[in-house]
Amino acid sequence: MTTMIRESSSIAPAVEPEPPSPSRGIVPGQRAAATIEREAVQVELDGLGASYGRHVVLRDITFTARPNSVTAIIGPSGCGKSTLIRCLNRMHEVTPGARVAGEVRLGGTSIYGSDIDPVVIRQRIGMVFQRPNPFPTMSIFDNVVAGLKLAGIRDRALLDEVVERSLRRAALWDEVRDKLKAPGGALSGGQQQRLCIARAIAVEPEVILMDEPASSLDPVSTLKIEELIDSLRMSYTIVIVTHNMQQASRISDRTAFLTVGDDGAGYLVEFGDTATIFTNPRQRLTEDYISGRFG
Amino acid sequence: MSTLAVLPAGRIPGRDMRRRRATDRLMRGLLGLAALLAAVPLVLVLGFVLIQGLPALNLALITQSPVPAGFPGGGVAPAVVGTLIMVGLGTLIGTPIAVLAGIYTREYAGGRGATAIRFLVDVLAGVPTIAIGLFAYGLIVVPSGGFSGLAGGVALAITIVPIVARITDEMLGLVPGSIREAAYALGIPPWKAIVHVVLPAAAAGIVTGILLGVARIAGETAPLIFTALGNDTVSTSLGQPMDALPLRIWVYASGPYDSWHAEAWAASLVLVLLVLAFSLLTRLVMRQRSRSGM
Question: A38-129+206-290 sits in which CATH class?
Answer without folding.
Answer: alpha beta
